[in-house]
Design a protein that fits this description.
The protein is an all-alpha fold and 529 residues long. It has one domain: Formate dehydrogenase/DMSO reductase domain (Formate dehydrogenase/DMSO reductase fold, Up-down Bundle), CATH 1.20.1630.10. Helices cover 65% and strands 2% of the residues. The chain is built from 17 helices and two strands. A two-stranded antiparallel ribbon has the order 1-2. Helix 5 crosses helix 10 and helix 7 crosses helix 8. The protein is globular and about 85 Å long.
């Protein structure tokens, strides 16, 4: 981040920096780089238009499915999901564990990119923050509705009361509530804090547009309100101004922002580890066979990272294609995601093989029975989905050409997501439906209501994601500007426009323009990944 020295110490220049120089310079606004202009313009100009509305219509349709399924579940009870005895945990816990694992994996990627100071954060950091927060919001649809009596959800929280009653601290329901609240607090803080300078940039760009509109109205001797877009532009500037919390980019702001960002990144990494290892310990605290291997905590962390990176890869490739961001989300960033998927897939194979070897060579026949039912039982499809769609599919990234193919990375990322959901189903349902007593075993069958609730939780994520892509910068303007500054400091030619492909049609202001790789694609060693 560029800086100069003032009487008060180093002066950092960032988004929304209007505190240096005279007022006239401040009114003119900071100099805009091509990447900043384009990323801010995406939030202000709505480049997708019809495609965005079609996607939003599909997401809202699924939201209707969620509303209908929740109505019937709350009216008739959780038995609508097909839960039975002994499978009291079914698709509700499968969906919750899957979403919170995906959120943990994405948040861990964001925290590592920030703490390591990797330039790849310019392309992946904002998307990782968003996926983490929205996946946690999707997970939040489950802890309350699967209680059976959701209107008493606050009984899970240790609040002061007249009868000095406290929650059952050994209950997974209590720790589910603590998990989701702690994750939403830390993940939401990371997301908003990293977004804060960009909100100030949007505030300033929106204010610049108001000044231009006022000048045009004055030239016509008309009030600014005569412009049909004035009220919307004014409302947009006011909302961005409120959300930016008075950010002015002073040295004090930057210093405190940097310290808070790093503190939250460390907390985020610790939350990820504690949530996933804690979930493994909660499983091990039961008497169910197949949940007591010593590799379970490490395996849970690997599964969470794998599902989070897969979701990030899918979202990154879709956003890259939709907005034409090939110059900002470059082939090197895609290769980084592919290598992460490959490495995590190998780590998953290691954990799975040694868990199976420990089960087969151990003396517990019940554990061996669980393993055999996972491989060849009534729900063996979950095991083979994990093997074929997840662990085998990522091995394709041994080929360099696939590591740089956006289509291959997006497709394999989707397959890995399906595989990780299947693994959660295999671990939970496959174990519960047949434990110790053959007479107590009962098969579990998925029904339309359980699947509809999961599809509805997916619709919540998609709806919030579409809204964030519409009204907020797709990538971090601040991080892209940092890499742009490094590009220029290295003596490389500045790019007139970071977007390599537009879809507004030739000859239009946003028509096709060609640009080579810009930030994150500097032809250098691994330090520039």
């Amino acid at each position: 981040m560029p800086s100069d020295m003032t009487a008060d110490g180093p002066r950092f220049h960032g988004p929304g920096d209007h505190s240096s120089g005279d007022r006239g310079a401040a009114d003119a606004g900071p100099a805009h780089g091509p990447a900043e202009r384009d990323l801010a313009g995406m939030a202000l100009d709505h480049p997708l238009r019809l495609r965005w509305w079609l996607a939003m219509a599909g997401a809202m349709g699924l939201m209707g499915v969620l509303a209908i399924s929740l109505f019937f579940v709350l009216w008739y009870g959780v038995g609508m999901w097909g839960n039975n005895i002994p499978v009291t945990w079914a698709l509700d816990i499968v969906g919750y564990d899957f979403w919170i694992g995906t959120a943990c994996g994405s948040l861990a990627v964001s925290a590592v990119l920030l703490l390591a100071g990797m330039p790849a954060r310019s392309a992946l950091g904002r998307l990782a923050d968003t996926v983490a927060l929205l996946a946690a919001a999707a997970a939040g649809t489950y802890p309350i509705i699967h209680l059976g009596r959701p209107w008493y959800f606050y009984w899970n929280l240790p609040y002061p009361n007249t009868f000095l009653l406290w929650p059952q601290f050994r209950s997974p329901l209590y720790w589910d509530a603590i998990d989701i609240l702690s994750f939403l607090g830390v993940g939401g803080g990371v997301w908003f804090l990293n977004l804060l300078p960009d909100l100030a940039t949007l505030r300033d760009r929106a204010s610049d547009r108001l000044r231009v509109m006022a000048a045009r109205a004055a030239a016509r001797s008309q009030p600014p309100s005569s412009d049909p877009d004035w009220k919307i532009a004014l409302l947009r500037a006011q909302l961005y101004g409120i959300a930016s919390l008075g950010w002015r980019g002073s040295a004090v702001h930057w210093r405190r922002w940097t310290e808070a960002s790093r503190i939250l990144a460390v907390l985020a990494f610790l939350v990820v580890l504690s949530l996933q290892t804690g979930a493994a310990v909660m499983f091990a605290g039961t008497v169910e066979p197949g949940w007591h291997d010593t590799l379970e905590p490490a395996s849970f962390v690997v599964v969470a990272l794998l599902s989070g990176v897969a979701a990030l890869a899918l979202v990154a490739t879709v956003v890259r294609a939709a907005f034409g961001l090939e110059a900002l989300i470059t082939a090197r960033h895609l290769e980084l995601l592919a290598m992460l998927l490959l490495g995590l897939g190998i780590a998953h194979i290691y954990c799975s093989v040694f868990e199976a070897l420990g089960t087969l060579t151990g003396g517990d026949s019940y554990d061996r029975g669980v393993l055999m039912r996972r491989i060849g039982g009534s729900h063996a499809w979950a095991f083979w989905s994990l093997v074929l769609l997840g662990l085998a599919a990522v091995q394709a990234f041994w080929l360099p050409v696939l590591r740089r193919s956006a289509l291959a990375i997006g497709a394999i990322g989707f397959l890995v997501i399906v595989a990780m959901w299947s693994e959660h189903f295999m671990i939970i349902v496959g174990t519960l439906q047949h434990d110790f007593l053959p007479s107590a075993a009962q098969e579990y069958t998925m029904n339309i209501w359980g699947l509809a609730t999961f599809a509805g939780s997916l619709s919540l994520l998609l709806t919030l994601l579409l809204l964030s892509l519409r009204y907020l910068p797709v990538l971090s303007i601040l991080d892209v500007r940092r890499v742009e500054t490094t590009w220029q400091a290295a003596g490389l030619p500045a790019r007139p426009d970071p977007v390599s492909r537009r879809r507004d049609g030739p000859g239009s202001p946003g028509g096709p323009r060609t640009a080579g790789p810009l930030p994150g694609a500097i032809p250098a060693g691994p330090s520039h990944v």
